[in-house]
Design brief:
Elements lengths: L6 E5 L4 H12 L3 E6 L2 H13 L3 E6 L5 H15 L4 E4 L16 H29 L2 E8 L12 H19 L4 E8 L24 H9 L10 H12 L9 E5 L8
Helix pairs in contact: 1-7, 3-4, 4-5
Length: about 260
């Protein structure tokens, strides 16, 4: 198993990405610590993992709360003997479907500020323990929104740009301590979309798109004519967190189905 004996903290563990990553980590032998703001949702995920034989614990942690993040990381490291992987899958409260001209500063900048704060706090908390043990992997997730010019996505692209830039800086500072920093770039994740009407993203659809219409619209811009699946996110995350990806840091795993060329 790729992550046997590893301790992995997942922030935003009850979200769709967090669940997928947690399932992959547990399947590969990691002891998983799910953190998030809603304990009942985390416990639901944990119950499913435990039923499949996974080792999992949950804790209510707001990734924007500095003291809570530090306290939780310290507790996990003390109880488990260290932190080997930290994955930030928290949401940012993005506002989609309206042009920038109609957004308030808070609607645009709020997601950016929350993304930067959560990434910094969770990374720093884990890195303090990883640098002492001389190893560890810090992970994040972004999407094509941060690389392409897409209308009506508010501050999402800027937030993802900021997460990637911050991750590169952490990578160059932590590398000498044996700590790697990597992130996954995905397309939109169709399994995460609800059946509600979706933003039109400047396509001219006055009432927005149906879920199927939005998925078809996103697929048309990929080389593979499909979108990233949650299973693929989990599988690649497990590989990146493992020693098999030991030479990789300060870089993304491009899971965009060819929508964004690697550079």
């Amino acid at each position: 198993m790729l992550l046997e004996g590893k301790n992995a903290v997942i922030y935003g563990g009850a979200g769709s990405v967090g669940r997928a990553v947690a399932a992959a980590f547990a399947r590969e032998g990691a002891r998983v610590f799910l953190a998030g703001r809603t304990l009942a949702s985390l416990d639901e995920v944990a119950a499913g993992l435990a039923a499949s034989g996974g080792a999992v614990e949950t804790a209510r942690v707001d990734a924007l709360d500095q003291e809570a993040v530090d306290r939780h990381a310290d507790a996990v490291a003390t109880r488990a003997g260290g932190i080997d992987v930290s994955f930030n899958a928290t949401s940012h409260g993005d506002v989609h479907g309206r042009p920038l001209l109609e957004l308030s500063l808070e609607e645009f900048a709020g997601p950016v500020a929350r993304a930067v704060r959560a990434q910094f706090l969770t990374t720093r908390a884990a890195a303090r323990h990883m640098t002492r043990q001389g190893s560890g992997v810090i992970m994040a997730i972004t999407a094509t929104t941060g690389r392409l010019s897409i209308p009506e996505v508010g501050g999402t692209g800027v937030a993802f740009d900021a997460v990637e830039s911050q991750s590169r800086q952490w990578a160059c500072e932590l590398g000498r301590h044996g700590v790697r920093v990597v992130w996954l770039q995905t397309t939109g994740l169709p399994e995460s979309l609800s059946e509600e009407r979706q933003p039109g993203y400047g396509t001219g659809a006055p009432d927005g798109m149906s879920r199927a219409e939005l998925i078809a619209w996103m697929r048309r811009s990929t080389a593979l004519d499909r979108l990233t699946s949650l299973a693929e996110v989990g599988n690649v995350a497990a590989f990146l967190a493992s020693d098999q990806a030991g030479a990789m840091t300060g870089a993304a795993a491009n899971l965009t189905c060819g929508q964004v060329p690697s550079r």
